[in-house]
Structures are given as structure tokens and as C-alpha cells.
Specification:
- This protein has 320 residues and is an alpha/beta fold.
- It folds into 2 domains: 43 residues, Arc Repressor Mutant, subunit A (Orthogonal Bundle); 255 residues, 3-Layer(aba) Sandwich (Rossmann fold).
- Helix content is 43%, strand content 12%.
- It contains 14 helices and 9 strands.
- The strands form 2 sheets. Strands 1-9-8-5-2-3-4 form a 7-stranded parallel sheet, with helices on both faces. The chain has a two-stranded antiparallel sheet with strand order 6-7.
- The radius of gyration is 21 Å and the shape is globular.
- The termini are far apart.
- The mean pLDDT is 90.
Length: 320
Amino acid sequence: MANDGTDPRVLAALEAANLYYLQDLTMDAIASELQTSRSSVSRLLSFARETGLVEITVRSPLDHGSHLEHEIRRRFGVAAHIVRVPDAISEVDRLERVAITAGRVIPSFIDSNMKVGIAWGSTLSAISRHLVARETHNTVVVQMNGAGNTLTNGIDYASEILQRFAAALSATGQQFPVPAFFDHPATKDALWRERSTRRTLDLIAKMDVAIFGLGSPFAEVPSHVYIGGYLDRSDYASLTRDRVVGDIATVFYRADGTWKDIELNARATGPDFDRLRRVARRVCVVSGAQKLASLRGALATGLITDLILDAALARALLES
């Protein structure tokens, strides 16, 4: 929805938010002033938070997140956003909590006239459900890598994520309707020369922001590329031989950040890392200590400028 200031609900939510957060009125007092019910005021305040009219920041002197963020910046040269999550929480809930924070942080990185690249997968799908709306103009959200395989064309899965991002940013969405992996490198090379494909590749080459999770063969919440029918037995054997620890947009890498000579990358449709490294802002969202090896390898590639992760994984990263 476009929050252009003319929508009656937006105006009402703004008025309620000003009275509640800036003038410290109770919800009963606001209901009386606005001549509505207390439950309506509660819904207006929730609407204001969900649509980004109100942003709430909690700063605790007992919170060690800022220390972890400082240490990650010092050691790895990336801006970290730490999400406090109970250690005993399930990995599914941990991902959801990190995705909620990412859904509030990421729109602040995006402005009008930008080209925003997004990968697909379990993490991006979760983020797309929690994005706070941000009004932009002439913004394009482009799918960075293909999603098709021998079981599905991948269009429904990837387009749902793409459409949620585009809707939240009032942007245009551009799909990339190609397989995640070609059967033969020569087929990829031939299609990459086609004008229809070049249009999407040109958008990817001009990205201002790239947003991605980390695929991992070790994660408790399975990465979509490893369970969605994208890889066969020979592919898994190839990844083992090449000592792969993870992937970014279906381009695989090792623990030391190397990637160019990994066999499967010759057939992958994600952007090569040399090109991705030219993007001004590269946002990685990751959760769960099982992804530590994948995260260390991703940091070694030099691709990450902004990192959103849970506190347990941040501590494990610094202690490893």
C-alpha cells in the first residue's frame, strides 16, 4: 500500500501514534479524543508499526549486542545487526525472529531509483513475509538467480518472494525465468547471449543493493537448494570433492572463500562473485549455529557489507 498521506487510515494511524508515542496519552484518552473505541486505537497503533509509520528501538545497558556488532565490524569489516534470540528456541523460530528484524532493517537500505537484487530460499521467503512497507519510486526488484529444476519451473516459488518485496517497496518486479542450474555449461553460455536474457542480466549487473541468505548443507532448517530437487547424486559428489561449505544465490564457495574452479558453478545461474562484489550494498541474513561454516566461508569471499544474524551465531563466529 502506498502511504502517500491521503489514505484516511494512514492519517488516523499517524494521529493515534503521535498522541500515544509523543504525547504519552493512554489508549483510553486517545479513543475519547478520536471518538472511537480503545480496540480501534490498538489496531491503528499496530498498523502504524507494521507499515513503518512508527519505528521502535530498544536500547538496554545490559545488551551485549552492540559489543558483538563492534567486534564483527572490527574483525570482518562488515556492519552487523544482532538479533537477541533465546538459546533454547527452535531453529525454525530462530529463523523467524531474525527474519522479522531483517524485514524492518532492509527497507531502510532502499530508496527510489534503485535496482534491488534478491536471491530465493528459506531465509528470503521468511523475510518477505515480514517486510515493513516503504514508499519508493522507479525502483526495480530483480531475481538474481534462476529457480527451475527437473521437478518444477520454480516460477511460483520465486515469484511469490519477488512479489512480496516489490509490493512492500512499491517497486516493479523482474523475474529471471531460467533453471537454477543448466545441464551443460555450453547451454548457459548460449542463453546468456540471447537478448531476452541479457535484459535481466543487465539489471543484475546494475544492482545497487543485493539481498541474500546462505545456503548450507549443514543447517537444521534445510536450505531450499539442497532439498528442492535442484541437485542429484552426482552433484552432491561434486560438491563434496570441491569441499563446498555453502552457496550464495546458488553459486558455491569453500571455507577459504574460493569459488571460481568449483565445477557446479559453471552451470549455476547466480551472479559470479566478482560481479556481485561491485554492488554497493550486499546484505546477508543468516541464523543458526549450524551455518557457522557457511558464514565464515561467505565472509572470506568478501561479499558481505551488512550482516543480520542471531546473537548465538554471532558469538560462535567470534569464538571460532
